[in-house]
Design brief:
The complex is a heterodimer of chains A (371) and B (98).
Chain A: E1 3-10, E2 13-20, E3 27-32, E4 37-43, E5 51-57, E6 61-67, E7 75-76, E8 89-91, E9 97-99, E10 104-110, E11 118-123, E12 126-130, E13 138-139, E14 160-166, E15 174-179, E16 182-186, E17 194-195, E18 216-221, E19 229-233, E20 237-240, E21 248-249, E22 262-264, E23 272-274, E24 292-295, E25 303-305, E26 323-325, E27 333-336, E28 342-345, E29 353-356, E30 362-370
Antiparallel strand pairs in A: 1-2, 1-30, 2-3, 4-5, 5-6, 6-7, 8-9, 10-11, 11-12, 12-13, 14-15, 15-16, 16-17, 18-19, 19-20, 20-21, 22-23, 23-24, 24-25, 26-27, 27-28, 28-29
Chain B: E1 2-5, H1 8-14, E2 19-22, H2 30-40, E3 60-64, E4 67-68, H3 80-83, E5 89-93
Parallel strand pairs in B: 1-5
Antiparallel strand pairs in B: 1-2, 3-4, 3-5
The chains are: A mainly beta (371), B alpha+beta (98).
Chain lengths: 371, 98
Amino acid sequence: MTTLRLLVGTHKGAFVMTSDERRKDWKIEGPHFAGWDVYHVNGSPAEPNRLYASTSRGWFGQVIQRSDDGGATWQPIGNEFHYEGATTTHKWYDNSDHPYEFLRVWHLEPSLTDPETVYAGVEDAALFKSTNGGTSWEELSGLRTHPTAPSWAPGAGGLCLHTIIQDPSNPNRIFTAISSAGSFRSDDQGKSWKPINHGLRSSYIPDPDAEIGHCVHHLAMHPSRPNTLFMQKHWDVMRTDDGGDTWHEVSGNLPTDFGFAIDVHAHEPETIYVVPITSDSDHFVPEGKLRVYRSRTGGNEWEPLTKGLPQKDCYVNVLRDAMAVDSAESCGVYFGTTGGQVYASADSGDSWMAIARDLPAVLSVQVQTLA
Amino acid sequence: MIRVELPANLRTLAGVGREVQLEVDGPATQRTLLDALETAYPALRGTVRDSRTKKRRAMLRFYACEEDLSDESLDAPLPESVAAGQEPYLIVGAIAGG
């Protein structure tokens, strides 16, 4: 019997939610780390009971927590993130040079094969790696010291590395995305990096077609097609079929192509999901209607999914790491909102139910499909 | 035995109540007290002061005997009543306002 385990990070703690494959009745445990911002909780594909959580507070800094029993108990582990070498700078909001300063971990990405290895994407933007279960961390400094890095500038949420994707067919290849620098690819396990932003167009920057400076909000990949990536950019939904070398827009008939979250169906590589958000000034869903949009054609042609979702007086946002899909026989889709709701669909998005309605603002949702 | 009061988030992190009691090696100063705190509760390393520079985190303050010790020398002796365990040493999160 398959069990689904949701890992939900919120502004005031983490929650672990479990259900059988029917996905109707959910047991909710938490809050873990009550009072702490939990930007991300993620499980090891190689050892699913090994979970990592990023908790932080402005007063107390960053604490990484680890569970080895599926979230029942947690231990604080290594929280020292030190940039390698001399302090470098990036651009500040006023275009001045600003020294790199570690603030928090936005995203944790455990290795596909080794439960002791985990990557951390941090603010100010850099990539760290631990090979001892999070006890200690070393920067993969080739990204932060890329020749373009001094010109990277923060988005409204800070200069954050928020997306890490490992290529399951090529252990040397890693994709990352940084707001608001763009997306990057390494073909040597993170030692060196190449900006992969050709085809992106951002009208709000001085050169709309610049190599870097694009506010990439999130990337998603289907493991069977590692050269195809989907991107929710600040504005525009984009697609590449050559590992990021070139991108083209697939926003099509979306009501707005601003948004944060994007994901791919577990069994249909051309089925993708986004949650359109009104605009960069109005961070809530359009027209008071919470609608997930699904494309079964890899983009361009989109249909709204509304059954079970509020269709009036709804003004929530869905953040970049707050959508996930399970790999049960009937693909489940999940997302959390800034209003504290967590919604689940057990039928690829055709219908939805609220698992929780009154949590703190949801920052991240991951799901594990457990045999 | 020196008494230290922690803010709520750090109590959760260390798995303790409002107050912990610590023995310090050598003279009772803020530095030896914070060293003892981090030794007794390793989960707190880096949350009260920077793990490398040992500088106080900007949004935390240190108080004792109704005095703000935050900017005092870390190597100055603690007030006698704190060193004697009669008064607590307070680690306080700066209040941001309502």
